[in-house]
Write a structure and sequence with these properties.
about 30% helix, 7 strands, alpha+beta, about 40% strand, 4 helices, about 130 residues
Length: about 130
C-alpha cells in the first residue's frame, strides 16, 4: 500500500512518504482493492472526531483508473464508515479529482488551498 501511494500520489510531485507519516497511520482504517495478490488501489479512513471521518490517500494504479476501482473503494469506505456510526465523510481532494468525487455525491465545502504543493478543496458527504 505504501509503494502504491508513493508511486501514484507522491513521486509525481517529487515527494516521498516519510517514516513519521507512516507512524501516525498505524491506527487508521486501511482499505485495499486486490486482484489475487496484486493491490490495484487503496485509501484510508481516519477519525477526525465522533461522527466525522476523513478519507485519505486514495490511489488507483494509473493504467486502471476509470475502470471502476476507485468507485468500488469509495463505496466500500463509505459502507465501513456508516457501519461504524460515522455521519459525515470528508477529504482534502486534489483539484483534478473534484469531478470524480462530485459524481460520488461529495460537495466542495472550502475555498481552494495548497497542500503538498498542489491545489485542493475540502469535500464532504453526509452518509
Amino acid at each position: 500500500m505504501v509503494k502504491l501511494r508513493d508511486d501514484i500520489l507522491r513521486k509525481p510531485l517529487g515527494l516521498v512518504i516519510k517514516t513519521e507519516e507512516l507512524e501516525n497511520e498505524k491506527d487508521n482504517m486501511l482499505i485495499g482493492a486486490f486482484e489475487d495478490d496484486d493491490m490495484l488501489g487503496c485509501c484510508m479512513l481516519v477519525e477526525e472526531k465522533p461522527g466525522i471521518v476523513r478519507l485519505r490517500q486514495m490511489a488507483v494504479l494509473n493504467d486502471l483508473q476509470g475502470k471502476g476501482i476507485g468507485r468500488a473503494l469509495m463505496n466500500f469506505a463509505e459502507n465501513i464508515a456508516r457501519d461504524r456510526g460515522y455521519e459525515i465523510i470528508n477529504m482534502h481532494a486534489r483539484k483534478n479529482a473534484i469531478g470524480f468525487y462530485e459524481k460520488m455525491g461529495y460537495k466542495v465545502s472550502s475555498d481552494e488551498f495548497i497542500e503538498i504543493t498542489i491545489p485542493h478543496y475540502v469535500m464532504e458527504k453526509k452518509l
